[in-house]
Each structure stands twice: as C-alpha cells, then as structure tokens.
Amino acid sequence: MAKKKKAPSSNTIALNKKAKHDYFIEEKFEAGLELQGWEVKSCREGKAQLTDSYVLFKDGQAWLLGARIQPLTSASTHYVTEPDRTRRLLLNKREIAKLVAAVNQKGYACVCTAIYWKKHLIKCEIALAKGKASHDKRETEKEREWNRQKQRIMRTDNR
Fold first, then answer.
1. In sequence order, what are the beta bridge partners of 124?
2. Helix, strand or coil for residue 122?
3. For 20, phi and psi rounded to 5 degrees?
4. Looking at domain 12-132, what is its CATH homologous superfamily?
5. Which of 33, 27, 72 is nearest to 50 (CA)?
6. What does the pLDDT read at residue 4?
7. Which residues of the chain, if any, have pLDDT below 50?
8. Per-residue model confidence as pLDDT tens digits over 63-80
9. Dihedral through CA 104, CA 69, CA 34, CA 94, nearest 10?
10. Cβ contacts of residue 15 below 8 Å, gap of 6+?
11. Across the chain, which distance is largest between two alpha carbons, in Å?
C-alpha cells in the first residue's frame, strides 16, 4: 500500500500581525514570490518571518524587503544563504502601476501581510495600507476588547 501524505493543517506560512495593528488595510493583492530552492525548503518548515517587511517599487518591478527566511541547519554548505535578501514579487504591469500610483499618494504604504501556499506555489499577500495614528490604534484595541466582553456576556447568558 502507498503511504498517505499528511494534509497540512494550514496553508499559511507566515503572517504579519503588526501590519494590521499599524495600518488600515485598503486593498489586497496576490503576488508570486521569486525564491531560491533553499528558501522553499525553509518555508516548508515554517521558518519565515514578515514582521518589518514592506514592498518597494523600482524600475517597474516590485521587491519585498525586510522579510526573513531562516536557512535550515541541514542546508547545503556550498550555497550562500542570505536570510534578509530582497526578493522579487511577481505582479502584472497593471497591478504594479496601480500600486505605484497609490503609494505615491500621501499616507499610503504597501506592506506584505502574509505568505502562504497555493497548490504547490508560494504566494505573497500584499496590501495597500494607510498608516494609523496612535489614537486610532487605541480605538481599535478598545473595540476588540469590547467585542470580547460581549462574547463573554452572551456565553454566560445562554447557559
């Protein structure tokens, strides 16, 4: 009998939770990610981080900066592994033009919110975002706390 492969619990490799805290997410795009072989193997092991990553546009191309993919300890020694290198994002020209036009407006930024598997490919979810002020962050936190409190009240009332 053939061995059955374990189904992955989630398609998500890495999330950027800080981006949702620091920005209002306006619009999301899906981009391919140009990776080397050792980076794909590290992503399979879940060794990717997006905490301070952002997207830079240069010469009509999109580049992901600040994303960290930690090399495996069992990786080959003849590869030069750079965990923090800039990686090219694969987007259509129309999508790049739309993002560049929006980023050139005041207050908009393009950040990476997630890296995930789509079939056998690694995709990057980038978002067009507007920065939050500190009072907006506090307001979001209060709203989140109130929603938790409502859930607790509803749970105790339904018993």
1. 31, 115
2. strand
3. -70, -25
4. Small protein B (2.40.280.10)
5. 33
6. 55
7. 1
8. 999 899 888 887 666 777
9. -20
10. 50, 113, 114
11. 63
